[in-house]
Amino acid sequence: MSSDHSELHNNLSQIITGVESNVASSSSSNSTLNDDITPFPSPVLSATSLAGLSLSSDGELEPEVDDDKIVTEEDKAKALELKAEANKAFGAKDFNKSIELYTQAIALNPKDSTFWNNRAMSKAKMEEHGAAIADATKAIEINPKYSKAFFRRGQSYLAILRPTDAVPDFKKAISTDPNNKAAREQLQLTVKLIRKIEFEKAISVGETETASTKCLSLLSSGACALDTTSSPDFPLPTIPKDPNARYKPTKEFVQGMIESFKNGGKVPKRIAWEIILGCKDVIEKEETLVEINIPQGVTCDIIGDTHGQFFDVHNLLSMTTHPSESHYMIFNGDLVDRGSWSVEVALTVFAYKWLYPEYVFINRGNHETNDMNKVYGFEGECKAKLGEMTFKLFADVFTSLPLAVLVSATQPPASPKSEGSQPAILNEGKRRFFVCHGGPPVSKDGVTLDEVRKIDRFGRQPGQEGIMCEMLWTDPQEPQGRGPSKRGVGLGFGPDVTRRWCELNNITAVIRSHEVRADGYAIEHDGLCITVFSCPNYCDSTGNKAAYIRMQANGALSYHQFDAVPHPDIKPMAYSSGFNFGGF
């Protein structure tokens, strides 16, 4: 490690933490704001420390190849043909296919660095940044002057919030290719980000008041009055005569605001604060594990990641219909970041929670965290549209969001069959589903629902280990057992791990999100792990379908796909301060 790199690490040693970190609690007046605006307390270093799991010394995540293979001219020619096919698949946004073809090319000719780097690019598109780092590293070993490989690795380090590791790679990309303008731009932005982190950490010392408390004080003092000079083009919430009293939501207001957003409308800061604080009033009364029953005649829709793709959310709501006493909705985290209408998505969902507290439920995702918001666009977008204090208010309230919903059927199942090959696991003769963003807490066996209920979530960032971290970051894997996640953060859990946890807790299936699926959903682990992803053509680049899941009162599930709809010509991550992760 170079001296510059060591110094960079030392400067951030107090910022990038490896434990579940306390930040300003929304329920405690004597807590501090030390980490409330500090990025990178989330699981950002690697999968190496979680639950005693470790990557191999070289970070290899793929089946080993024969580095000593004697490569024939025939091998080289066939490998180049496969590369050409892989490039076409990449261009068609079939990234799984391109990975498969690059892998075949590597098997024939493991000494061609471009194959490794191209596969790294495909893996980055699938958010497998840990595996992308491993592949780019291999490309660099083969060709130490491969500027694009250093740049690719640096981008993946930055994507998993390891800026101090990204800096030397960007520098190396520039030194090996002085004309690499993209690397030069990313280096400047990354160094600027690190300095910003240090500055915000320094100025936050000694702050004792949460953003929610500050905003409430400003409201009561009249400092955030409703601007009546530019009245919005939708019905306002119920406004009491006392100018300092809190507003009340109405159906006409919420639906009018949503339609206004579709037409490019904006919401006044005072109304945005009322929505966010109104949502906070509701969710801070909820348990960390929210438990709901689905009565006869009621349906419940589970929505996966929406990531600021407001126009697709608007289309989704037209298909699901809006929430009501006969139609519950669970939004399973990652409302924000990447898409450039994250403010509109978050305000839509928060407003529905404010209006329908007993019919709408919101889980926290790994992007409802300070560190991710700083790099992936929500912080910049929120500050641009509604100001810095509004972002701090959102960030504070994100820490109050529950981590999971336990959804129970009230009617017996029509069939004993599960979503897989085995009979359904039932609880007192009925189906029930554990809905959380990443996955169940399974770094060790034996974790119960009671342990989830006892998590003190308020004011906390996920940390780098522990139950809260796992529920926001884990991913299913095909092999049995546990392993490091290919995304470079968290861990992977196999079918056997899922079955043991579901049988222990009488869970019919885990419903989670967190990952792109080509069809918008995937039934995995013999029906015990179901992924739902509700961002069609994610980041305008992956070409995937999106989906939502509908549950009936007897626990029957149905899967509903939808495609992307047109949106104004604003690119994903338009507010991310110029960071570019190759489309992600």
From TrEMBL:
Record-annotated Serine/threonine specific protein phosphatases domain positions: 363-368
Gene Ontology cellular component terms for the protein in this record: nucleus
Major subcellular location class: nucleus
UniProt-recorded Gene Ontology molecular function terms: metal ion binding; protein serine/threonine phosphatase activity
Alphabetically ordered keywords of this record: Hydrolase, Manganese, Metal-binding, Nucleus, Repeat, TPR repeat
Domain of life: Eukaryota
Catalytic activity as recorded in UniProt: O-phospho-L-threonyl-[protein] + H2O = L-threonyl-[protein] + phosphate; O-phospho-L-seryl-[protein] + H2O = L-seryl-[protein] + phosphate
TPR repeats: 147-180
EC number of the protein: 3.1.3.16
UniProt xrefs under InterPro entries: Calcineurin-like_PHP, Metallo-depent_PP-like, PP5_C, PPP_dom, PPP_phosphatase, Ser/Thr-sp_prot-phosphatase, TPR-like_helical_dom_sf, TPR_rpt
Matching SUPFAM superfamilies: Metallo-dependent phosphatases, TPR-like
Subcellular location: Nucleus
Ribonucleoprotein as UniProt keyword: no
Co-factor(s): Mn(2+); Mg(2+)
Family recorded in the similarity comment: Belongs to the PPP phosphatase family. PP-5 (PP-T) subfamily.
Name recorded for this polypeptide: Serine/threonine-protein phosphatase
